[in-house]
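User: Sequence in, structure out. Go.
Assistant: Echoing your sequence, followed by the structure tokens.
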Amino acid sequence: MAYFFVGLGNVGEKYELTRHNSGRMVLEYLHSKRRFSPWEENGHLRALVSKGHIGKEEIVLLLPQTMMNKSGMALKPLITSIKKAHRLAVLYDDLDLPLGHFKISFKRGSGGHKGVESIVRNIKTKEFVRFRIGISAAVRGRSRVKKPQGEKNVIDFILGSYSKRELDVIHHVAKDINEALEVFVKEGRASVMNDYN
């Protein structure tokens, strides 16, 4: 049984380097650093799909080719049991974490993230691993983040493009997540959460 890694984001050139596409960007980084097959369009799944291996385990990478709030449609035909859900890792942006950080979670709520809500709705379980990628500014000298307030400001922020400096930070985070996904596959969920959280 394969592992499934999904990078969430919106489709289209104007969204490519936006904060809301962080999950997609990190998965594309992983694809570029490993020997995976070229991306192929799968009309049935409405996703770009690539396959490869980590150790002896088969890995399927998916980039949904829908807007964020329909991300789960790509997974509905694939994640058909709890056992398969436990082999699913979803990568996405998180306003509650500062840029440069990520957190691995399991069986938790969506935190209002429309892509995660769509996945839960389509596969009918919360029992999958989440790689939450921080996108907010950190408050200096404190352990909290400075988040935009109000729906319009939140939307403007998450759909805003990263600066070059911020992209460098995301690139560094992508390296760490690439390593963490390997631990997830080789050693399991408990190990990766213990090592990286």
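User: And one key feature?
Assistant: The first helix runs from residue 22 to 33.
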